[in-house]
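Glycosyl transferase family 1 domain-containing protein
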Amino acid sequence: MKKLVIMIGPSPTARGGIASVIKTYYEHGYGADGNTRFIASHVDGSMPRKALQAGIALSQFLGLLLRGKVALLHVHVASGVSFWRKAIFIRTARLFGRPVLFHLHGGAFCDFMDNGLSGWAQRLAVATVAKSTAAFALTDDSATWLRERAGLAAVEVFPNPVAVPPAKPRKRGLRDVLFLGRIEDKKGVFDLIRAFAAVHAARPEARLVLAGEGDIAQARALADELGLGAAVALPGWVDGAARAALMDEAAVFALPSHTEQMPMSILEAMACGIPVVATSIGAIPLMLSQGKCGILVQPRNTVDLGASILRILDDNILADTISASGLARVRSEYMVETVLERLARRYKELAA
């Protein structure tokens, strides 16, 4: 009887970084060999719909275990509800003696485990992670936590994948500063609006595009309070062609988050040749080669953030240099084909 690698995570049609990773896998051949199967444990929508999907996913997984068809569980995990939802799959797989590959996402996971939980809940959570056979982390700090707190030996830093579009020359005269992500404080969106006030004062033609769901009314109110008005666009969530169109018009990609792991949006921007300004947290310094492939700033430093954006807008040579180095970095380390080859090798080792 053929056994399968079962991957558990949010639907590729859902919103968020993990869903984007899974979608990228599938768009580039993941599962084409017939040795893997994906089960969506989460979908966007109402709470009843989410609960129903989680129940369906667990029943499907349990059915495969009972029929002896599971070789390995690859589970994508973040903090909060995401962790507790996946904990059931991890413990069920280990109950049946199946190996588990714990794939950690989410910049707040270690803080969630160490400070967001306490007592029996914390002990249960750490013990659940410890049941994993091996783990992928997106940063060295997360890998260290998995080794030291959960006692896992087989931990490696594993990159998110990105598809690199066909090369084309950068447009001249671009004026948009682009943010893609949830409109909320921990993403640094309000820092970015405040920083953009200085950018707009120096470059009145510049425009800030904040694409995502969340605290849109609060973002609009702050922009209006600072006199930015129509210079700040809030188109909501964008995907597909609309997302590509925003990328095509972006002079700078800005992600001033307070907490991150390995943001897919930065990889997408680098793959499109967009110069990046981002905070020096999580895997971002590694992604940007310690500032060689983008400009790093400290979280909440709106003065440096605005000045860094202006440096790129004012200097075509600098913008072209960052664009070329970022694209080269993505092609050498993060191309989806390379990541999938590495993933297939790890599957073979763990499922043997």
